[in-house]
Design a protein that fits this description.
The protein is of the alpha/beta class. It has 8 helices and 10 strands. The protein is 43% helix and 20% strand.
C-alpha cells in the first residue's frame, strides 16, 4: 500500500469471490482472521486460492487494474480498487532515472504484486515479491513458500532475494514493517 492506494491482494480476492471462483475461505472468514492475526489472515487469503490456475489469478488482477468502478462488491465485501499514488509514480520515475534499483516487497499474493508493480510503475516482475504459493502444472497449491513477506519476514525476503547489504532507502505505510525500515543503511533514508 506504500505505492498504491488500496490493497491489491484484497481487491483480487474480492474480484475472485465476485466472479464465483472456488476459493477455500469467505470474505467474512478472512476478516475474522484479520482482526486476530494479520499475518495469518494474509496467508489464508493466498492459501484459499489453492486449485486456481496462475492464469485465473493473473486475469482477476488485470480485471482489477482496469476496473473503472471504484469499488468491488462480493457478498458483504466492499473493497476499493487500488490505484497508484501519483506522488509515488513520480518518485519511482525519478529513482529509475537516477539508476536506482527498485524492489517491492508486499504481503499480498506474489502474482498480483508483480502485475501491479509492472503495470503501475514499470518495475520488472523479478524485482517484486509477495506471498508465493507453490504450484503444480501451473495451478496454485495451498503450500506457501517461506519466508513470508509479512512484518519481519520482509527482511528475510530482502536477504534471500535481493541482497545481504542494507538498502539505501526503504518506505512503508505500516508500523508492522518497522523491521524493514530498521534494515536501511545508516546513511540512507527510511520513509514512513
Amino acid at each position: 500500500n506504500t505505492l498504491i492506494a488500496g490493497d491489491i491482494g484484497e481487491a483480487v480476492f474480492a474480484r475472485l469471490l465476485a466472479d464465483g471462483a472456488p476459493l477455500k475461505c469467505t470474505w467474512e472468514e478472512y476478516q475474522s482472521f484479520l482482526r486476530c492475526d494479520v499475518s495469518a489472515a494474509y496467508r489464508l487469503m493466498v492459501e484459499s486460492m489453492a486449485g486456481l490456475s496462475i492464469r485465473e489469478v493473473e486475469e482477476a488482477t488485470l480485471k482489477v487494474l482496469i476496473q473503472t468502478v471504484p469499488v468491488i462488491e462480493a457478498g458483504n465485501a466492499r473493497v476499493s480498487v487500488p490505484k497508484p499514488h501519483p506522488g509515488m509514480k513520480k518518485l519511482v520515475s525519478l529513482l529509475k532515472k537516477l539508476r536506482y534499483h527498485i524492489y517491492v516487497i508486499s504481503a499480498s499474493n506474489q502474482i498480483s504484486v508483480r502485475i501491479a508493480a509492472e503495470e503501475f510503475f514499470g518495475i520488472s516482475p523479478e524485482c517484486s515479491f509477495g506471498i508465493e504459493s507453490r504450484t503444480v502444472n501451473k495451478c496454485l497449491l495451498a503450500t506457501l513458500v517461506k519466508p513470508f513477506p509479512i512484518a519481519a519476514g520482509k527482511v528475510d525476503v530482502y536477504h534471500k532475494h535481493i541482497s545481504t547489504f542494507p538498502p539505501l532507502s526503504t518506505a512503508t505505510d505500516s508500523v508492522v514493517d518497522a523491521p524493514i525500515l530498521g534494515l536501511t543503511d545508516p546513511l540512507g533514508l527510511s520513509l514512513w
